[in-house]
TrEMBL record:
SUPFAM superfamilies the record matches: Thioesterase/thiol ester dehydrase-isomerase (SSF54637)
InterPro entries referenced in this protein's UniProt entry, alphabetically: 4-hydroxybenzoyl-CoA_TE, HB-CoA_thioesterase_AS, HotDog_dom_sf, YbgC/YbaW
Identification of the protein by name: Acyl-CoA thioester hydrolase
Keywords per UniProt: Hydrolase
NCBIfam families named in the record: YbgC/FadM family acyl-CoA thioesterase
Membership in a protein family: Belongs to the 4-hydroxybenzoyl-CoA thioesterase family.
Claim: DNA repair is one of the keywords in the record: no
Length: 142
């Protein structure tokens, strides 16, 4: 079950690095998941929900599902935008959607990740941890 009362997004600009490409200068498909992480980390810095915040509260948030659809290639030296959108859920999880746009503002790739919360014993949290609920309340998410 999802709720859309307040949409939080973050846009990060990145340049394709040489080591991310194959011999043809095209980004290897596995790097798009890394770009999603770049988007999540930028989102966390902008909106106050970094991995360190989660860790300092005594939790970890492993990814349990990721999807990635490719539409156009990125090439060495190009810059691109990662738009990361937090999808609010009543469940104790983090859902992010991603869109990657090239320099011509064409959609290159889209995807989603889902993370769950584990406490310090490695147990799955069935309810929002207090720090996460406080963050959601601060951001106007119920």
């Amino acid at each position: 079950m999802q709720s859309n009362e307040n949409i939080l997004t973050c846009t990060e600009e990145v340049r394709v690095r040489f080591n991310e490409t194959d011999p043809l200068g095209i980004v290897w498909h596995g790097h798009y998941i890394v770009y999603f992480e770049d988007g999540r980390e930028a989102f966390g810095r902008q909106h106050g929900l970094t991995y360190l915040d989660i860790q300092n509260a005594g939790f970890v948030a492993p990814i349990v599902k990721s999807t990635c659809e490719h539409f156009l290639p990125l090439k060495y030296g190009e810059t691109f935008r990662i738009v990361t959108t937090y999808i609010n859920s009543v469940s104790a999880k983090l859902i992010y959607k991603y869109e990657i746009f090239n320099q011509e503002d064409k959609l290159v790739c889209s995807g989603e990740t889902i993370q769950v919360f584990l406490d310090s014993n490695g147990s799955l949290c069935l309810y929002n941890p207090d720090f996460f609920q406080a963050w959601k309340d601060k951001m106007g998410l119920s």
